[in-house]
Amino acid sequence: MIKSASWKPDGRQLLVSYDKAIYDKDGNYRGTKSYVELLDIGTRRTTTLLIDATDAVWSPKGDKIAYVKIDQSGKQSLWLLEIASHSSKRITEDSLTLIGNPRFSPDGQLLAFAASQGWPSQARMTKRSSELVPVAKAHVIPWDLWIWDGEGEPRRLTTIGQDLISQIWLPDNQTLFFITDLGAYQINARGQDLRKIRLRATPRGITYISNPN
Fold it and tell me: Which of 12, 62, 116, 211 is the most exposed place for a label (fewest CB within 10 A)?
């Protein structure tokens, strides 16, 4: 099952993240394994770039790839792959166990992503802005937006604790628009000026169109 796809800025290569079902020799289902493949459009050749990884995305210059690594226990972490050296650097620490939807700012200086510390019973949750957003439903894992500036540890942008976060950057490199299972929001890269745009949203992915005509 394809999870996500990301074009290299020059349009010559496509990153495809997908899950593949695993069966034993008797045909019994044993789970899934995650892969990231690189498709060269010119040659139509496909190369397995990463194993036990998902949500891979190109940087605006095409010199880096951000991706989510999955360990044997199912915990996730965010990594950055340098194309020239083919070396990877871990961005997130163990306190964040679920990671998703990494997105570079248009200038490539910032990296936003969704993350969760697991169920509230497994981690201390910070106080939410109840005046602005409703408390997430009890049966979903609380997610928030985080941001990394290329140095040090990532910063938490929101404390809304909602599910199915999907975000995009606006062209100013400072504004994020995101949707969850409970609404659509806008916030700046400093974690300020959180505004709710819609009461309900359907998280199926979003994109920015500069000229709809």
Answer: 211
Cβ(129)–Cβ(160) below 8 Å: yes
The size of the chain, in residues, is: 213
Distance of alpha carbon 192 from alpha carbon 5, whole angstroms = 30
- Residue 128 reports pLDDT greater than 60: no
Name all contacts of 168-177 with Cβ < 8 Å and 24+ positions apart.
168/103, 168/206, 168/207, 168/208, 169/103, 169/104, 169/105, 169/106, 169/110, 169/112, 169/208, 170/208, 171/106, 171/208, 171/210, 173/105, 173/106, 173/107, 173/109, 173/110, 176/112, 176/145, 177/206, 177/208
For the whole model, what pTM was predicted? 0.85
User: Among 52, 22, 23, 58, which residue's Cα sits nearest to residue 35?
Assistant: 52
pLDDT at 180: 87
pLDDT tens profile 137-148: 334 688 999 999
Contact, 212 vs 179, CB < 8 A? no
